[in-house]
Amino acid sequence: MQIESNTAGEEPGAKDPVWRLIEKVGAWWIQAFSPALFLAFFFGCCWLPLRDAGRALSLGSALVLQMYIHELGHLFVFRQNGIRSRIWWLFPLGAAAAPVDRAEKRKSEALPWNDVAWLLQAGIMANVACMLAGSLLRSASTGWPAGFGGDLLTAGGVLAISNLIPLGKLDGGLLFHVIFSSLQEKDDVRVARGLAAILILAVLAAVVSIAWLGLGELIVAFFVRSGWFAVFALIAAGIWHRQGMDDPAHAGSAQAMTRRQALVHILYYIALLYISLRLCLGPLGLNF
Ligand SMILES: [Zn+2]
Q: What residues contact 147, with CB distance under 8 A and at least 6 apart?
């Protein structure tokens, strides 16, 4: 659902559908009404299965809030880099933090890829921070505030985890695009293998920690953790796909990040992935 409008690392002059959309929906009255439209839309989507107006309002508000907070994360890093930018509501697709005009957009495209990578991670990081706040609220209160805390957790999890999947124009997809563009081909393969090994080791560790359960419990435990396995499989597929896609000549670009910077981003990505899955889906193994 989230759209990231920064296209650093792409061919200059390439048509960007998000930008065409921003130019269409830029009128202030469309922008002013969009959050209310989103709230009504999410309320409808949540009410249909829940049939409870209070629950639907709580979950719908949490979704709108988490969408906005995600874009605030991007906006913060844009502004840290001196790029005049704002948040655009693109109903019904999502929202995007983007430079205010084409001149600022060109400035953002000239940013070093290390800064672009922080820009991409910042949206997910903002969701994870808000999920932690939601989890505290849930355990420290009762009644509707506790329910809202849980909804912040769910809504943030949906946004964070979907944006971590390294596919297409999602934040995770663009993040691995700048990482693989920066590295030499040999290192691209190392990164892809290393990440695949980490995902497989995590699954193995989980299996070992639950292996002493009886067969029935083992099957239940497997289904309880199936969300983890599904996300891992999507990430592994996305990374293998990305790794083969980049232009090797990009590694010599002046915008490219160093190997050390790439490693920091990968470790940071793994931490965000672990925290958001852990908060949303519970532990992967019995003891961790
Ligand atoms: Zn984003």
A: 55, 58, 138
What dihedral do alpha carbons 246, 75, 102, 116 form, nearest 10°? -20
CA of 163 to the centre of ligand 1 (A): 7
pTM: 0.89
Q: What is the pLDDT of residues 130-164, one digit of tens each?
A: 999 999 999 999 999 999 999 999 999 999 999 99
Q: How far is the CA of 168 from the centre of ligand 1 (A)?
A: 12
Residue ranges, the chain, pLDDT below 70: 1-15, 286-288
> Which secondary-structure segment (H or E) carries 140?
helix 113-140
Ligand 1 center–CA 252 separation, angstroms:
27
Q: What is the pLDDT of residue 15?
A: 64
How many angstroms is it from 31 CA to the middle of ligand 1? 18
**pLDDT number for residue 31:** 86
Rounded to the nearest whole angstrom, what is the distance from the C-alpha of residue 4 to the centroid of ligand 1?
Answer: 5
CA distance 147 to 151: 6
Cis geometry, peptide bond prior to residue 17 (ω within 30 degrees of 0)? no
Q: Which tokens is 275 given?
A: 């925290």
How far apart are the C-alpha atoms of 51 and 234, rounded to whole Å? 32
In whole angstroms, give the CA distance from residue 227 to residue 208. 18
* Nearest alpha-carbon partner for 83 in 112, 49, 55, 123: 112
Give 93's DSSP letter.
Answer: T
Among residues 74, 114, 80, 120, the alpha carbon closest in space to that of 98 is found at: 74
Say how many Å lie between the CA of residue 174 and the centre of ligand 1.
Answer: 10
